Amino acid sequence: MRSMSMLQLLGGVAVAGAVAAGTTAFTASGLSNTISGSSFVGGTITQSVVGAVLSAAVFHPVTAGSNNIDSITLTLAGEGGATITTVTAKITGKDDGGGAATAEALDCTGTTTVTCVPTSASATVYYTDITSISVTAV
């Protein structure tokens, strides 16, 4: 039977710690649900972020207690300390007409605290049953 050296043991502990820390950081991008029930996101949501680190996504209802989401506030930091100049986002969910879930672009303003709303070109006023949000920061 071969014995493990102290260096191998410490290396294994370091890798396990990095994996645990990475998993924690990945799941820490928060989804704030201040709305009764979970139907506004169908119980789960996929968040895809490119070029930034997402620390919070707060979904705002049309009226208090409603499951109709009319804006989202994102809290971002530039990846690797980079400065964010532009943020674009797409949301997948049912529109206010109750149609099938589709991905629609949002109008976003801000660089680190970003507010995203349905585009002015869209007839959509709010979304329900949101399943994903995709964010790109440059």
Topology:
Blueprint: H1 6-27, E1 30-32, E2 46-50, E3 52-61, E4 69-78, E5 87-95, E6 102-109, E7 113-118, E8 127-137
Parallel strand pairs: 1-3, 2-8
Antiparallel strand pairs: 3-4, 4-7, 5-6, 5-8, 6-7
Describe it.
The protein is of the alpha+beta class. It has one domain. The chain is 16% helix and 45% strand. The protein contains one helix and eight strands, in the order H-E-E-E-E-E-E-E-E. About 28% of the residues have low confidence.
Strand arrangement across the biggest beta sheet: 1-3-4-7-6-5-8-2
Radius of gyration: 19 Å
Element-level helix/strand string: HEEEEEEEE
Total E-strand runs:
8
Structural class: alpha+beta
* pLDDT averaged residue by residue: 73
- What does the largest sheet look like? 8 strands, mixed
How many individual helices? 1
- In whole angstroms, the N-to-C terminal distance is 54 Å
**Can you tell me the overall shape?**
elongated
Keywords, separated by commas or semicolons:
1 helix, alpha+beta, 45% strand, eight-stranded mixed sheet, 8 strands
